[in-house]
Structure formats: structure tokens, C-alpha cells
């Protein structure tokens, strides 16, 4: 009698654990959304180098070693997530000035890119909890981009640098870590 009820409790507990794990989505990022985001960011404005921005080329250096060939999937996805999160924070903290005197970027494409970026951050939130924290160079990088955005004369270049580097991140992740995404 005693063993039977214990067995029932154990079975019920195992069952609820199973139900709980079944509702947690698999941790991954949809490759087609990453690809679409990359294409939008590439096409929304003129290619780097923007001539007038060359003096600021050395002011913010993206830590590329986070995406070297030997990087494991979990680390690469985490680095991608961290890059998009840093970029989203910059978009939240500073206004993008489009049009005359500002950036020649297509507003609709920028909006579409940001929607995909938000979607990737939401769906990929689980990757940021699975691996060790990313390269400390990442926060230094976004700090340096912010320094460019804070000065009126370098703000446009700060955005161009950010776009160039996020584009590099998306492109590199897709090429070097293609199989890490869900397709
Ligand atoms: C950030 O700027 C500082 C000061 O200019 C520089 O020494 C450092 O290398 C830069 N770091 C990154 C990651 O851009
Ligand atoms: C990484 O792999 C790509 C494709 O296999 C290759 O073209 C590239 O040279 C490699 N880069 C490094 C730093 O090993
Ligand atoms: C860019 O880097 C140069 C050289 O290191 C420095 O003098 C300048 O203050 C930096 N500009 C900004 C806006 O961070």
C-alpha cells in the first residue's frame, strides 16, 4: 500500500516534470530571420567606408575574436545575441537622425531591421543564459560607439560604424556558423 502510493506520487512528479520541459522551446535562432535582418541592414544605406568617417575608423573596434572559426555554436550564438542586444541598447539611448544633415538610410528598412532584431532577441533570449559571459571587449566596443554618438560631429559616423560592425557580425555568423542556426 505504502509503496504503491509512493510510486503514484513519483509517477505524477515525473509526469509534471516532463510536461514542464516539453513547454520550454528549443534554444536556437532562426537562420532565415538572421539572413533577412542582414539583407535589410546591408541594403538600407550606402556601403562603408563612408569617406568622411575614415578618421573615426579606429575609435571603436569590434572584438572579432568572439566569432573565430573554432568557436562552438553556443558561444557563437551567444556572441551574436550579445551584439544585437548592445546594438538595440544604442538604438534606445540615441536618436538616429535620418535625412538632410544626417544619415541617408531608408527609414522603412531600418524599422523592419529593428523589428527583426527585437524578434531575434526575444526568441534567442535562452542562449544568453547557457554559456559564459561574452568577451569584455564587447562592452568596451559599445561604450566607444556611444562616445562617437554623443558628439554632434561624429554621431553620423558612429551610426555608420555600428551598422558596418553589426553587418559583419550577422554575415560572419551566417557563414562561419551556418549549421548553428535552425533552418
Ligand atoms: C575604446 O576606446 C579606447 C580609447 O580610445 C581604446 O583604447 C580602446 O581600444 C577602444 N576599445 C574598443 C573595443 O573599441
Ligand atoms: C575561417 O573559415 C573560412 C571558411 O572555411 C575561411 O575562409 C577563413 O579563412 C577562416 N578564417 C580563419 C581566421 O581561420
Ligand atoms: C576618437 O579617437 C581619437 C584618437 O584616439 C580621439 O582623440 C577622439 O577623442 C575620439 N573621438 C571620440 C568622439 O571618441
Automatic annotation (TrEMBL):
InterPro entries reported in the protein's UniProt record: 4_helix_cytokine-like_core
SUPFAM superfamilies found in the cross-reference section: 4-helical cytokines
Listed Gene3D superfamilies: 1.20.1250.10
Record's signal peptide: 1-22
Keywords: Signal
Protein name from the UniProt record: Uncharacterized protein
Taxonomic source organism: Hippocampus comes (Tiger tail seahorse)
Amino acid at each position: 500500500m505504502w509503496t504503491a502510493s509512493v510510486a503514484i506520487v513519483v509517477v505524477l512528479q515525473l509526469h509534471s516534470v516532463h510536461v514542464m520541459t516539453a513547454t520550454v522551446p528549443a534554444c536556437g535562432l532562426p537562420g532565415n530571420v538572421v539572413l533577412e535582418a542582414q539583407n535589410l541592414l546591408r541594403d538600407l544605406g550606402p556601403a562603408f567606408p563612408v569617406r568622411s568617417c575614415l578618421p573615426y575608423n579606429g575609435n571603436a573596434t569590434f572584438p572579432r575574436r568572439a566569432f573565430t572559426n573554432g568557436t562552438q555554436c553556443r558561444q557563437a550564438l551567444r556572441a551574436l545575441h550579445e551584439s544585437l542586444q548592445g546594438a538595440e541598447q544604442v538604438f534606445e539611448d540615441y536618436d538616429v537622425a535620418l535625412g538632410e544633415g544626417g544619415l541617408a538610410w531608408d527609414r522603412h528598412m531600418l524599422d523592419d531591421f529593428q523589428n527583426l532584431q527585437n524578434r531575434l532577441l526575444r526568441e534567442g533570449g535562452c542562449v544568453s543564459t547557457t554559456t559564459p559571459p561574452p568577451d569584455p571587449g564587447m562592452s568596451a566596443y559599445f561604450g566607444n560607439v556611444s562616445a562617437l554618438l554623443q558628439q554632434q560631429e561624429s554621431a553620423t559616423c558612429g551610426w555608420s560604424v555600428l551598422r558596418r560592425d553589426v553587418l559583419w557580425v550577422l554575415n560572419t555568423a551566417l557563414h562561419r556558423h551556418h549549421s548553428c542556426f535552425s533552418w
